[in-house]
Design goal:
This protein is α/β, with parallel strands linked by helices and 410 residues long. 49% of the residues lie in helices and 14% in strands.
Length: 410
């Protein structure tokens, strides 16, 4: 799906930004007018133009709030938050001060917006090893009381992103549709993601169960406040999170359902899928110098490879493309997919060039109750993570979850 740009990476990220329109995180005209000002494949131009748009909306929000227009302020803050996220996306130098500054502005705007949400919203800190992981808790705010005058316990969906998402974006991907359907939601960032990599400098880890288990422990310890059904805990991982969530589900059996949005069977296979034969041969031969040199050449002309390699080196805590390839080998479901016991939904997109063929491999390897859903070109949902089709994605995800949990009275 080509949108404004010939560069497929820019086109996809524009479509991703526009997708947030569904839950008022963007406006179509604002996105298109910004895109028309951006120079093709130019990361600096991308940052500058999206930052201008974000700043303008940020000012709108402050002015609306000053005049007492709270709903307008909320919506402008949501859009500003998303646009700051989009602006920061292609900053691939971890030492660039704009990365942390722009990320903080995105977070600040989102928190401002939540002050006018109709749901119960709470920033949380989840104990994890020697530190804490940031998260947001969203609770359906209907004040339903049972005979014991307690709030109704609801199913809950735990959600985390993947290679490049932020905590705030998870509201549009998961929390907003969950709340509409009567689900409470806990969104969090783990190692390699969002503030955990930007502020705490903690890189990705392949054994994601070590991340999810503390999250579930935290939930269970706070069940009275968070009002969820212990037998109805779903985990959803988005993009690379499709590997991470599956890995966690293979070892953490307190989960009642797992959603792989989209499925990832082997991280190294996915990374190498965009590499030319010469590079693949050099990797096979263990020729580190050639692998690094070829990647440097490819990054000069290919935005996708440039982003994936540079962002990957940063978030995986390594110094070269060769090391990134080697480290990605640990991100695999080989030998462990059969350990997943809970019902699992595997999503796939017909023209996904980030993880081509990976969801089908995950589905084939699963032995638990499972469902495979392919999103197609005819549906306008063929791009990575069904960008541009949030309504259809949410319909299929939550209808499956309703049926899995037998929920029809929300």
């Amino acid at each position: 799906m080509k949108l404004i740009f010939d560069d497929p990476t820019f086109s996809l990220q524009l479509l991703r930004a526009i997708s947030q329109t569904y839950y008022k995180g963007a406006d179509i005209g604002e996105c298109l007018s910004t895109a028309y000002r951006i120079k093709e494949s130019d990361f600096e131009s991308w940052y500058n133009e999206w930052y201008k748009t974000a700043k303008r909306l940020h000012n709108y929000a402050k002015e609306c709030l000053k005049l007492g227009h709270k709903k307008s302020a909320k919506e402008a803050y949501l859009r500003a938050s998303n646009y700051y996220r989009v602006a920061e996306f292609f900053i691939i130098d971890p030492n660039d001060v704009r990365s942390l500054q722009t990320w903080r502005l995105s977070k600040e705007c989102f928190i401002r917006a939540t002050q006018h949400f109709s749901c119960t919203f709470k920033p949380i800190q989840i104990p994890y090893e020697q530190t804490k992981l940031p998260g947001y808790f969203f609770k359906v705010n209907d004040y339903f009381k049972n005979e014991n005058k307690k709030e109704k316990q609801r199913p809950i969906i735990i959600v985390h992103g993947g290679f490049d998402s932020t905590l705030e974006e998870l509201y549009f991907f998961a929390a907003a549709p969950a709340l509409e359907r009567g689900y409470n939601c806990l969104a969090f960032e783990g190692p390699g993601q969002g503030g955990v990599i930007r502020k705490q400098k903690i890189p990705f880890r392949f054994d994601w169960e070590k991340v999810v288990t503390p999250v579930i422990d935290f939930l269970l310890e706070n069940n009275e406040e968070y009002c969820f059904k212990k037998e109805s805990i779903a985990l959803m991982g988005i993009s690379l999170g499709g590997y991470l969530a599956a890995r966690a589900a293979a070892f953490e059996h307190r989960l009642s359902a797992c959603i792989l949005y989209n499925g990832v069977y082997d991280g190294r296979e996915a990374l190498e899928s965009s590499f030319p034969p010469l590079l693949l041969k050099s990797i096979e031969d263990g020729n580190e110098k050639v692998v690094n040199t070829v990647n440097e050449i490819l990054m000069e002309t290919d935005s996708n490879i440039k982003f994936n390699i540079k962002h990957g080196m940063w978030t995986f805590g390594i110094d070269s493309p060769y090391e990134l390839v080697k480290k990605s080998s640990a991100f695999t479901l080989k030998e462990i997919a059969s350990n997943i016991h809970c019902p699992t939904l595997v999503l796939d997109a017909e023209k996904d060039d980030s993880f081509p063929g990976q969801p089908q491999k995950v589905y084939n390897a699963l032995t638990c109750p499972k469902k495979y859903t392919l999103f197609t070109v005819d549906e306008g949902a063929e791009e990575h993570c069904q960008s541009g089709a949030p309504s259809l994605s949410n319909q299929r995800i939550f209808d499956w979850l309703d049926e899995t949990f037998k929920i029809y009275d929300n």
